[in-house]
Amino acid sequence: MPGPTKIADLIVPEIFTKYLIQETTKTNAFLNSGIATSDPSVNITDGGKTVNIPFFHELSANDEVLTEGTALTINNITAARDIAAVHVRSVAFAATDLSKLFSGADPIAAMRVQLGNFWATKMTDVVLNTLKGIFGVTDLADANQLDNSANSLTGDVMSDAMFLLGDKSAKITALAMHSKVFAKLKKLDLIDTVQPSALSPAYNTYMTKRIIMDDAIEPISGTGATAVYPIYLFGAGALAYNENGTLATYEQDRDILKKEDVFTSTRTFTMHPRGVKWTGTPADGETPSNAELATAANWALVENPKNVAIARVITKI
Description:
The protein is of the alpha+beta class. Helices cover 26% and strands 31% of the residues. The chain has a single domain (11-56, 76-316), classed as phage-related protein like fold, CATH 3.90.1690. It has helices at residues 13-27, 29-32, 97-103, 107-134, 138-144, 155-161, 179-187, 290-293; strands spanning 36-37, 50-56, 79-85, 87-96, 145-152, 172-177, 192-194, 203-206, 209-213, 229-235, 239-243, 249-255, 260-273, 276-278, 299-301, 310-316. Strands 5-16-10-6-9-8-7 form a 7-stranded mixed beta sheet. Helix 1 packs across helix 4. The longest helix is centred in the middle third of the chain and has 28 residues, at 107-134. The chain is globular. Mean pLDDT is 87; it is low at 5-10.
């Protein structure tokens, strides 16, 4: 005989939310590759739509020949602030008793299982639209972008791309690209596969840099043979990811008149390119839409471009 329902048989929202954040981090390639890392200076609360990320500029001074009796010139270090948009995103799902009856399965349970992957995908959408927006900023594009849009991708183009950050190119740890771009690099015999250990999954690299392959990285123009694809290059910690677990919610409800179960999930986070500040004002809602993130006018460069650990190649394949 089945026993009574126990607490362990039910979804405890607080516990499930913590699990969901962990699952999203594990599943999202930008998070688990080290491209997106937390910033201890970021404090997401329920009191603001943006957060400040303070930083110091590099030292700028002239050394002096030491002369007896002559005082050295006093120099200082200047500070600035980056501004990150806070993203508050929610989703709701529902299923009727009849859908469960006629399908022979539990739709709500299936939805919950996929929720971690769902949020990982949506956070990737935030990243990719942000990247579209910041590379519309002229100062960043002029410095950190290689335009090969009139030609096909070659090994020489990729080699040049690896030095887009100049003497700071050693920062680059990962690349993100569409599967068709990956296939071209494979044909050029430029891809290696790394197996860290028997217990770790294998991953692909270019010049030892980890590759993220995602077909959400769509062409920026053209179709078919004329399609121009972006390839993004990242340094570790290029994106400031922070999430307020207290503001993340999972809520369940039931409409007894409709015989319908429903749940909602809300996430509150930043996914911000360090060195390029958010300047936009959302037209609808309280926080930016993906379309607004992809709009160049909503971003401004606040760092030396070479200190923005993100570069881009645009190319045919």
